[in-house]
Amino acid sequence: MTTFTKLGDGDTPLIEVDAKKILSKIDPLMYGGFTEHMGRCIYGGMYDPGNALSDERGFRKDVLDALRDLDIPVIRYPGGNFVATYHWLDGVGPRDKRPKRPELAWLGTESNQFGTDEFMEWLSVLSEGKKQRVEPYICLNMGTGTLDEALAWVEYCNGTKDTYYANLRRQYGHEEPYRVKYWALGNEIWGPWQVEQMTKEDYAKKAAQWAKALRLLDPSLCLILCGETGHSSWDHHVLKECVSVVDMHSIHIYTASAQHVTNVTAPLSAERAIQTAAALIDIARIENQVPASKPRTMICFDEWNVWDPERAPGEQGAEERYTLSDALAVGVWLNVFVRQSRYIGMANIAQTVNVISPLLTSATGLVKQTTWWPLLLFSRYMRGWTVAAHVSCSAYEGPTTPAWLQGVLDGGAPWLDVSAVVDEEGFLNVVVVNISDEHDFETRLVGVVGPIGVHTVSGSGPQARNTADDMEAVGVRESSWDGEGSFVFGKHSLTLLRWKAA
């Protein structure tokens, strides 16, 4: 958590950190990913058979290599909106017998050449060299799907007995169960764009019944409830009815603005959403008299990113071309998750490749977009425990996106957005995003111990972007600082400071 004192425009900013003031453990699942059958995420992204850059299974090796650098702990599949008309049996068995189906979420055709077994194999390849495997997280079809179909999918993935769907998995060449722990009870079922949209009352009743049946089949499952934004009447109702039968509550938010400062402050709406959802969880536990012995229902922020559907429509593949401004917004997003880590059980950036992604593939290569670099720094260094930090600086008090955010920011949005962690090796890591596109801030820091490693993400201006012709317009610059005097956080920059705590 980071507290804030507002200063005048001419006052010298101050950042104070203390490695001994540990607040909460950061769940590694906070750095999760998401793959959906949408645009070129799967086909032409992860899976591109016949391409010289793919292995014998059709998996793009350059994508796998890049994702290994992020040390992703969990990946959600197969959607997203796609899942509301997806029938998993279409995507298993001999490929030449798999049916092509109309795809209603993004108005395409699904070939079903990549399905459950391919996803599990792809995760296995991605996990090579890791101490722990990349966990699968499957979203169930609660649109056109049935409970029988959901139970069959769990049995296919996890069954160990002499039963039909466990044996079907064996028949298709996969003797050992996949041990899928994380299962979502549908996706965005509240949305009017959904096939089989439901009322909150109907969904809560259905989710409770599905949870009961799924746990009878496999008590080890971690079940994730379909929430909305974390601050809606849907969230309130479904938590009230289902908090005692689920392990996590899913919320989704995307942010974007054409104006730089409103773009980089927009993720602060997610901070308020997390706090509100956490309070709704508490209310639901109190009203349902959930015993203290039952672990807290955590928040699963399983879709988040910078995305403007008007400039990158989903039906056209949602291939955002990200700017430095967007990279800084992602940095603020990740600062929010670190600050609120006591409530976060999982978070999943949408999506893994091509679709609103930090990675863009072509037939001949890969571009790491601007948003890749904050993700890499956070995944590499911002693990361990959130520690207390305090920032004193001037603030932005202008219009916000969404508009309601302006009314809940106490004192405005600090020009220096800060989070801090101490890792298992005893290093203190502090991220500072200077959201201003006009001013550098010479800042005093209390609690630093030199020498200090410095990692800076910046560029020529907020609209700088990486392309195939200029892949390094925005990247990470490494330097050092002796910790003496003040430090200058340059305009439109993200800076990670790292030192051994005393």
Automatic annotation (TrEMBL):
One of its GO terms (molecular function) is alpha-L-arabinofuranosidase activity. It holds the Pfam family ASD1_dom. The keyword Hydrolase applies. The keyword Hydrolase applies. This is non-reducing end alpha-L-arabinofuranosidase. The lineage of its organism: Eukaryota, Fungi, Dikarya, Ascomycota, Pezizomycotina. It comes from Coniella lustricola. One of its GO terms (biological process) is L-arabinose metabolic process. Signal peptide: none annotated. Transmembrane segments: none annotated.
